[in-house]
């Protein structure tokens, strides 16, 4: 017996070192960085240093798993996200970007716009620098102002030399492109040997009259001389230098730590946070500047797991980097076609079966993925609830059509539809608002209107540390963490064997959506369901699908905060509800608004199946929809400030902002 115990202890002792041997392998690209990294490794034993010859070699090394992380500039964040690397930003530097605002500066007494630059003379801070080359040239190509069909047509530098009559672009090849060095006063290098090198040099180039426009960073414009200059805006207007926040080419995103999509970003962040800031953000002792991190950093910010290079860089910067490598963007199709984003197999089937002219169907696994596809122009539209309209709005999308459930309002163009969120219980169950804590709950989905945001606001309100996870003993809220108590009651596809689709925010989960949450209650899995006020009437007394046969409306009642000790009939939603909220709306990008509205108006005029679902309920649109009404209201007006306040309150008292909101608003 003693020998057995000693043997087991010996095994444990052997196992312990390998458990702690999960080191973060940091990629460095110079001997000075290696020195600093090795010093940092003395502060955290979980850090390991790997030397490579360049950033791109480091990115390859991270992709293959030979290394884990490196800090890169915004241009390399873009490159890292491409298919040959498939890396993502996991941590951002909390510091000023190298070029916070890249601008096009001109003398006040000139009268041309950004659309009139062809044939002008230009001054640039430095070739391949953010403010002097990458941003202005990438932006001009992305906006089709510099015409370039890509590297197979000609080098980008040649296209630029054909666009400007003469320039000073320090660092470019003087032998290959002499007119791009013609305005320089030196050897056309990015060094002290060139008078017009750097942002200060670009300004002097413009001031002296050797160029008509200077591409540079706003910070380097001398404050005492600002009154003599103006900025060229991308919309064709001009503004004073003081109005730079409304008139700039692009902002350079901050440097970021990149890693593999499946990397343990929390572990990497934890290892870095073990090291004192004074060591992490200082390079002087190692013979260099900005080694591993920018020396000007004040802190590091962990990024949400949903973050990728597109979300981090934002559309305009991402498109400028793409244009720098691939040329002018393809012309948008003129056929007015749109791509509708469907969530799950059942929606895809319905979408395909409708055969709507000028509409194709593209599938995604969740509403959040659809929102990202629309942002990337990989899809154009879908209908979502108010809570998801808010998320989409934070990511730059807009509501363009609203579901209307009242036929009379469809006929006379009445006000946009809305609905009541209600808490439904079984009659005689003993559940009241006062006895709700610790019960089992049914939700339409995580972060959805009726199913989550409204009950979260009504239950937790201003109560610190209150979350629906803690308030209920267990529940089903599709989209929640599978390991959490809010997935315990979910059934997946409902089959006896396996739990495929369990807790997914799609039709794979039988308890997803309004009908799913009510089914969760009707099958006595949960004790309260948070749904829309029309659902009980729509699914009982012979009107529901197969699973709802035999359900009687009189067996369900409502509970609410105003009547804490009692229940009321399900038809009394006007006096017993949790909130009145905006109806579901179709979201899209502003540039796709016209086509989306046109296709949907034609579809509802020519099809009687748009708002009907076979086999399942509420596919693509709510089944109670009578028509779609166009809305041109700004997002805040559509949702109302009161409703927005309620949503944002749930973020402060609940689980925090959804990852997609964090990613879109950082």
TrEMBL record:
Hydrogencarbonate binds at residues 132, 444, 448, 450-451. It comes from Carassius auratus (Goldfish). Fe(3+) 2 binds at residue 514. GO terms for biological process: antibacterial humoral response; iron ion transport. It is found in: Secreted. Belongs to the transferrin family. PROSITE patterns: TRANSFERRIN_LIKE_1, TRANSFERRIN_LIKE_2, TRANSFERRIN_LIKE_4. InterPro entries: Transferrin, Transferrin-like_dom, Transferrin_Fe_BS. One of its GO terms (cellular component) is early endosome. One of its GO terms (molecular function) is metal ion binding. Disulfide bonds join 27-58, 37-49, 123-205, 168-184, 181-188, 233-247, 341-370, 351-361, 395-664, 442-520, 476-490, 487-503, 560-576. Gene3D superfamilies: Periplasmic binding protein-like II. This is Serotransferrin.
């Amino acid at each position: 017996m003693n020998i057995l115990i000693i043997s087991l202890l010996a095994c444990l002792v052997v196992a312990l070192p390998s458990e702690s041997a999960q080191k973060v392998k940091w990629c460095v690209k110079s001997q000075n960085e290696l020195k600093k990294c090795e010093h940092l490794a003395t502060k955290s034993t979980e850090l390991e240093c790997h030397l490579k010859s360049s950033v791109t070699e480091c990115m390859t090394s991270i992709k293959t798993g030979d290394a884990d992380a490196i800090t890169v500039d915004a241009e390399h964040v873009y490159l890292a996200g491409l298919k040959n690397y498939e890396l993502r930003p996991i941590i951002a530097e909390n510091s000023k970007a190298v070029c916070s605002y890249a601008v096009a500066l001109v003398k006040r007494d000139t009268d041309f716009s950004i659309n009139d630059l062809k044939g002008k003379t230009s001054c640039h801070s430095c070739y391949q620098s953010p403010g002097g080359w990458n941003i202005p040239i990438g932006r001009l190509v992305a906006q089709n102002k510099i015409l370039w069909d890509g590297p197979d047509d000609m080098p980008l530098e040649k296209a630029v030399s054909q666009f400007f009559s003469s320039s000073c672009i320090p660092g470019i090849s003087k032998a290959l492109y002499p007119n791009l060095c013609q305005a320089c006063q030196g050897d056309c290098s990015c060094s002290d040997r060139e008078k017009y090198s750097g942002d200060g040099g670009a300004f002097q180039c413009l001031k002296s009259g050797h160029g008509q426009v200077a591409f540079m960073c706003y910070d380097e414009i001398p404050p005492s001389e600002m009154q003599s200059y103006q900025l060229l805006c991308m919309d064709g207007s001009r503004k004073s230098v003081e109005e730079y926040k409304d008139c700039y080419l692009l902002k350079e995103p901050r440097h970021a730590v990149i890693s593999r999509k499946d990397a343990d970003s929390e572990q990497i962040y934890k290892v870095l946070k073990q090291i004192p800031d004074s060591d992490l953000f200082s390079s002087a002792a190692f013979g260099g500047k900005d080694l591993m991190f920018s020396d000007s950093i004040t802190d590091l910010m962990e990024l949400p797991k949903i973050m990728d290079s597109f979300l981090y860089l934002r559309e305009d910067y991402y498109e400028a980097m793409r244009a720098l490598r691939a040329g002018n963007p393809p012309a948008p199709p003129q056929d007015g076609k749109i791509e509708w984003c469907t969530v799950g197999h059942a929606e895809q089937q319905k979408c395909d079966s409708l055969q709507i002219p000028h509409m194709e169907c593209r599938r995604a696994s969740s509403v959040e993925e659809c929102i990202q596809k629309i942002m990337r122009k990989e899809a154009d539209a879908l209908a979502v609830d108010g809570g998801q309209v808010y998320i989409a709005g934070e990511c730059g999308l807009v509501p363009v059509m609203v579901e209307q459930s009242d036929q009379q309002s469809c006929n006379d163009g009445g006000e946009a539809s809305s609905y009541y969120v209600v808490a439904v219980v079984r009659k005689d169950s003993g559940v009241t608002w006062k006895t709700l804590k610790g019960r089992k709950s049914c939700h339409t989905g995580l972060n959805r209107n009726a199913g989550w945001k409204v009950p979260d606001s009504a239950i937790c309100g201003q109560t610190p540390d209150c979350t629906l996870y803690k308030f209920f003993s267990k529940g089903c809220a599709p989209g929640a963490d599978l390991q959490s108590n809010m997935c315990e009651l979910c059934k997946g596809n409902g089959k006896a064997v396996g739990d495929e689709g369990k807790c997914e925010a799609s039709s794979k989960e039988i308890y997803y959506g309004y009908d799913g949450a009510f089914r969760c209650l009707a099958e006595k899995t949960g004790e309260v369901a948070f749904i829309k006020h029309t659902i009980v009437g729509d699914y009982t007394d012979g009107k529901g699908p197969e699973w709802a046969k035999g359900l009687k409306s009189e067996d369900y009642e409502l509970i609410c905060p105003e009547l804490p000790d009692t229940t009321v009939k399900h038809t009394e939603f006007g006096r017993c509800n949790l909130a009145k909220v905006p109806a579901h709306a179709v979201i899209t990008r502003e540039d796709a608004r016209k086509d989306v509205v046109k296709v949907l108006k034609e579809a509802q005029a020519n099809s009687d199946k748009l708002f009907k679902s076979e086999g399942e309920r509420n596919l693509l649109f709510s089944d109670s929809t009578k028509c779609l009404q166009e809305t041109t209201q700004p997002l805040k007006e559509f949702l109302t400030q009161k409703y927005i306040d309620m949503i944002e309150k749930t973020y402060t008292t609940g689980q925090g902002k959804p990852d997609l909101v964090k990613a879109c608003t950082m």
